[in-house]
Amino acid sequence: MQNVSGNLYLSSTDLVGHLNCTYLTELNLKVAKSELQKPKVWDPVLETLAERGAAHEQAFIDHLKTLGMPATVIDGVGLDPKSISATLEAMTRGDAVIVQGALQSGAWNGRADVLGRVETPSRFGAWSYEVTDTKLARETKGNTVLQISLYSDMLSAMQGVEPTAGPRRNPGYEF
Question: Do 21 and 65 reside in the same domain of the chain?
Answer without folding.
Answer: no
